[in-house]
Write a structure and sequence with these properties.
Strand order of the largest sheet: 4-10-9-8-5-6-7
Helix content: 40-55%
CATH topology of the largest domain: Endonuclease, Chain A
Number of strands: 10
Radius of gyration: 29 Å
CATH architecture of the largest domain: 2-Layer Sandwich
Shape: elongated
CATH class of the largest domain: Alpha Beta
Order of helices and strands: HHEHHEEHEHEHEEEEEHHH
Structural class: alpha+beta
Number of domains: 2
CATH superfamily of the largest domain: Endonuclease Chain A
C-alpha cells in the first residue's frame, strides 16, 4: 500500500519518522488491526513496524487494544492528533522563547534592513501595523491597499490615527482616505508600498508585478523615520491640495505658485532620471516585453 507523498510529508514535518507516518496512515485505512497485518500491508519488516507502533503509542497517536493474546492497534482520530500536535508545538515555542530570550542581544539604536522574501515582507507589514501605538501613514496600489485593508481598519478601530493615500475609490472603515488622480509620469513603472509607523519606523517596497518583489527595506532609525513621517504628510497634503484647488479660481494664485516651485524641483525638470540606475534592468525588460507583443 502506498500513500500520497504530501500526506507522509505533512506527518513527518510534525515529528514522525517516515515509517511511523506510513503506519499511522495504514491504521486510518484499517483500524483495529495487528502489527503483523500492518507490516504485511506496507511490505515492511514486522519487527520494525512494532517498534513504530510502540513509538506512536507513546506519542499518543495510536491506541493499543488487547483482546486475549491479540494486540490490535487503532489510530487516534485525526482531529485529536492535530490538536495534540498543535498544543505540543505551542508549548515547544513557548519553551524556546523562554530559553533564548536571555541570549538575545538588545536591539540596536538604528538599522536599515533589506527584505528579499515576499512572505517575510507582508508579515513585517502586518506586524508593524498591529504594533502601531499612535499612527500609520500608508500609500500603495489599490491591489495592496485591499490586501492589507483588514489590518489597517483594525488599527484605526482601536484608536490609532491611520491615513491612507490611494488612486482608486476604496472605502476603508475608520481610516482617513485621500484619493488622488493617477499620474502617467511617475519615476518607475510597477507597484509599491510606502508606510510609516509612529514616526519611528518606515518600510518601502517596490514590485515589478504584484507577485514579484524587486526591492524592499525596513528602517527603525528614528531620526530617518522622523523625517519620512513628515515628508509623507507633506506629500499627501500637498498633492491633495493641488488636486482640490486645480480648477478653483479663488485658489488660482497660491495653487500656481506652489505648483511652480514643485515643478521646478521635479525629478524630470532637474534631469534626475538618468541617475536612477537601480531599475534600468527592469525598464529594459519592460521595453523588451512591449516589443515582443
Amino acid at each position: 500500500m502506498e500513500f500520497r507523498e504530501s500526506s507522509i510529508t505533512a506527518l513527518t514535518d510534525l515529528g514522525l519518522n517516515n515509517l511511523e507516518a506510513n503506519v499511522y496512515l495504514a491504521l486510518l485505512k484499517e483500524p483495529g488491526t495487528t502489527g503483523y497485518r500492518v507490516g504485511k500491508t506496507l511490505g515492511k519488516a514486522v519487527s520494525n513496524v512494532y517498534q513504530a507502533l510502540e513509538s506512536l503509542a507513546r506519542k499518543g497517536v495510536v491506541i493499543l487494544q488487547c483482546e486475549g493474546r491479540d494486540r490490535r492497534y487503532s489510530p487516534v482520530p485525526v482531529k485529536e492528533v492535530v490538536s495534540r500536535f498543535r498544543s505540543d508545538l505551542e508549548e515547544r515555542t513557548r519553551v524556546l522563547e523562554e530559553e533564548l530570550k536571555d541570549l538575545e542581544a538588545p536591539p540596536s539604536d538604528t538599522g536599515i534592513y533589506r527584505i528579499d522574501n515576499q512572505a517575510q515582507l507582508f508579515n513585517k507589514i502586518e506586524t508593524l501595523i498591529g504594533e502601531a501605538k499612535a499612527s500609520v501613514l500608508f500609500t500603495a496600489d489599490g491591489f495592496f491597499i485591499r490586501q492589507l485593508q483588514p489590518q489597517l481598519e483594525k488599527a484605526a478601530a482601536s484608536g490609532k490615527a491611520v491615513l491612507v493615500l490611494g488612486y482608486e475609490d476604496i472605502e476603508i472603515r475608520h481610516c482617513e482616505f485621500l484619493k488622488l488622480s493617477s499620474g502617467t509620469n511617475g519615476p518607475w513603472p510597477g507597484h509599491w508600498i510606502i508606510m510609516d509607523v509612529d514616526g519611528i519606523q518606515h518600510l518601502i517596497a517596490y514590485f515589478e508585478k504584484p507577485d514579484i518583489l524587486t526591492h524592499a527595506i525596513w528602517c527603525d532609525d528614528q531620526y530617518v523615520s522622523y523625517w519620512i513621517h513628515f515628508f509623507m504628510m507633506a506629500d499627501f497634503t500637498l498633492m491633495t491640495f493641488f488636486q482640490e484647488t486645480r480648477n478653483k479660481e479663488e485658489y488660482r494664485e497660491i495653487h500656481d505658485r506652489l505648483h511652480s516651485i514643485y515643478n521646478r524641483y521635479n525629478h524630470h525638470n532637474l534631469n534626475l532620471m538618468p541617475l536612477y540606475t537601480i531599475f534600468d534592468n527592469l525598464k529594459c525588460k519592460q521595453i523588451s516585453k512591449k516589443k515582443t507583443t
